[in-house]
Amino acid sequence: MMLEFKNISAAYYKGHPILDGVNQTFAEGEKYALLGRNGAGKTSFANTIFGLLPVISGDIYYKGIKISGLPLEKISGLGIGYFMQGAPVFPQLSVRENILIAAGKVHGQTFTGSYTALQEVFPLLQQKSIDHVSAGSLSGGERTQLALAMAVFHQPSFLVMDEPFSGLSPTNVQLILNTLLGYHKNTGASMLLIAQDRQLASSFCSEHYLIRDGKILSV
Question: 6, 71, 131, 146: which one has the fewest Cβ atoms less than 10 Å from its Cβ?
């Protein structure tokens, strides 16, 4: 299995678990959806993968390696990408500088070949002179493209996406959806889409789960 939760309970405060004894596996190359109402724990589930929500019991494994308890940078370095809810970018920096940060490079350095690969996938990066545009001046759809490009710069083999379509117009939803399908086709990466819109999730994912009362249920 690609990613495996073994009897995971997680909480910010002892005695108030957000995840309660979760056992869940995600296979290589598959696209999964995690659905649930607001406050059900969808984002908390994603945060648990990256160590942002403390695990109080159980273990998480990625490709057989125990990742629960590891710092975020080590987890990401194993090949897990995270698109966080709200498409956070550095608004005061340029598009190019945001990508450099995702690449782990300091200001002024050049890109590796991965940037060319990003340009093939993201229409935003194909625009002339976009590199020097302030990220804070981008539209919602453009900001989502940039945040997603940052999340996949190192071509993760497992991509977690928390509400990537939130607040987007139907045109931009379709653009992002096509981009993700293209990335999956090119890389074969496993994907976990966190969403509220079941119909939209069904157009992208083959397997669906529901989070309720700290448990993961098949739907």
Answer: 71
Backbone angles phi, psi at 16, to 5 degrees: -130, 65
Better-predicted residue by pLDDT, 135 or 15: 135
User: How many angstroms separate the CA atoms of 42 and 214, rounded?
Assistant: 10
Percent of the chain with pLDDT over 70: 95
Give pLDDT, residue 150.
92
Domain housing 61: 3-218
Quick one: CA dihedral 176, 95, 126, 188, positive or negative?
Answer: negative
Q: Is the dihedral of CA 130, 136, 142, 145 positive or negative?
A: positive
Average pLDDT value for residue range 67-84 = 92
Residue 174 belongs to domain with CATH number:
3.40.50.300
Describe the strand order of the beta sheet including 55-62 as a list of residue ranges: 19-26, 3-10, 55-62, 65-66
- Per DSSP, helices labelled H in the chain are 42-49, 72-77, 95-103, 114-121, 140-151, 170-187, 198-202
Mean pLDDT value of segment 131-148 = 93
Q: How many domains does the chain have?
A: 1
Confidence (pTM): 0.90
In sequence order, the β-bridge partners of residue 193 are 33, 161
Q: Are 25 and 218 in contact (CB under 8 A)?
A: no
